[in-house]
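testing teh design pipeline on a random one, pls ignore if ur not involved
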């Protein structure tokens, strides 16, 4: 039996959703490569034969992993991939070659790869070899999931996600006596740590480093190894070497990004930070302040594709004013009950965007994407969607 028409379309959607789930598993582990998901399935029986996710470090790619797991069973079957298979010889053989060698007869892809080395070539090579190719299945979801890779290639910047924690009154809880003020719950903080696990780098400004002395690593049980590179943006002076981040720089990398003049101003401190294991990186500045496009360029040059900006408010505003924001995740303390009252069920998406975000994120036109309870708090995800 071979599926036809709408039955086949439904099956393609289900399998691509599975491939997207596989891709999501690798977010934050595959830089500089995108995390891709692949599924090999038998349309005749509805059986899923194997799955693959880009391996940590970006290689092997998802397709050869799924093909290897399927073995001979791949012959004559369909592979679902969240990104067009690569066609160029890099450090590994091209995925198109692996697909042809495995004898797969149909390839369903969610999106073409904007990388000029691939862009449409992978699809063309498959078709020329007689393989049936279907494009653009769950395209928009795949595009968002792969956005770090897309904007790295098209805009020379990483995917930028801002994380904000607000009090019950929608104000920003500030540090008290040199200690962070955790207004939100353990559950929300665990969600926040999951965002860290899915990021390649996490960024704070000199203010948060000074006031909170944070650690910024992922502390979710089992995901401790998924901590992103910790980046501090320093303007007027270099960070104090006694900060927790600096003391743990040999365990999890710390990059201090600042202007050349700030380093020259305090060479002794620069040397102390370098000796402690921090990496000092010079970026361009405007009016004495580090310039965000220059920060983005430096991050991309280091292979960073997904950046989580944890704060504080000065940095949020800077990113908003520059328009350098893709997604905003907001935790609102103690708001879960209100959400249930106004929205009826937690699945109802309430479109109203908190007024406080207008002043915290000036100039951004945000769309509500998701709204849900997070323990006693509310967690909302907003997207600043520009064509990419
Ligand atoms: N509720 C939350 O989600 C949350 C999250 C994080 C922090 N906080 C709180 O926020 C407070 C710190 O606020 P903050 O606004 O001072 O922290 P911040 O945004 O982390 O740091 C701002 C500082 O970063 C430096 N910087 C360098 N280049 C910059 C640029 N292009 N744009 C903006 N800043 C740049 C500047 O300091 P220099 O010129 O001195 O280098 C600037 O004053 C603390 O009380 C902390 O507890 C709250």
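output:
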């Amino acid at each position: 039996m071979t599926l036809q028409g709408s039955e086949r379309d439904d099956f393609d959607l289900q399998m691509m959703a599975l491939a997207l789930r596989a891709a999501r598993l690798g977010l934050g582990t595959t830089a500089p490569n995108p995390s891709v998901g692949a599924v090999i399935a038998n349309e005749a029986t509805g059986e899923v034969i194997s799955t693959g996710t880009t391996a940590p470090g970006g290689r092997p790619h998802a397709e050869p992993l799924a093909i290897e797991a399927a073995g001979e069973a791949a012959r004559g079957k369909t592979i679902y991939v969240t990104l067009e298979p690569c066609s160029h010889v890099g450090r590994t053989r091209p995925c198109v070659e692996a697909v042809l060698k495995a004898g797969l007869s149909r390839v369903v892809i969610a999106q073409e790869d904007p990388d000029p080395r691939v862009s449409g070539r992978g699809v063309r090579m498959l078709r020329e070899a007689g393989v049936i190719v279907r494009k653009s299945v769950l395209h928009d979801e795949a595009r968002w999931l792969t956005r770090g890779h897309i904007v790295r290639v098209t805009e020379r910047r990483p995917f930028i996600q801002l994380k904000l924690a607000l009090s019950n009154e929608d104000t920003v809880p500030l540090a008290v006596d040199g200690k962070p003020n955790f207004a939100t719950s353990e559950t929300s903080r665990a969600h926040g740590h999951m965002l860290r696990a899915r990021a390649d780098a996490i960024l704070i400004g000199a203010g948060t480093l000074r006031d909170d002395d944070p650690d910024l690593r992922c502390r979710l049980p089992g995901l401790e190894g998924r901590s992103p590179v910790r980046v501090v943006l320093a303007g007027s002076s270099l960070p104090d070497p006694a900060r927790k981040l600096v003391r743990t720089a040999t365990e999890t990398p710390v990059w201090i990004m600042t202007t050349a003049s700030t380093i020259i101003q305090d060479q002794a401190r620069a040397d102390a930070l370098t000796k402690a294991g921090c990496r000092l990186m010079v970026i361009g500045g405007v009016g004495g302040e580090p310039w965000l496009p220059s920060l983005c360029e430096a991050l991309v040059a280091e292979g960073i594709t997904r950046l989580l900006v944890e704060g504080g408010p000065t940095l949020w505003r800077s990113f908003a004013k520059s328009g350098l924001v893709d997604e905003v995740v907001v935790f609102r303390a103690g708001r879960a009950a209100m959400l249930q009252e106004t929205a009826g069920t937690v699945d109802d998406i309430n479109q109203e965007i908190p007024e406080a975000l207008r002043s915290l994120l000036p100039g951004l036109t945000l769309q509500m994407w998701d709204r849900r309870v997070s323990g006693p708090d509310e967690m909302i995800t907003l997207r600043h969607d520009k064509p990419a």
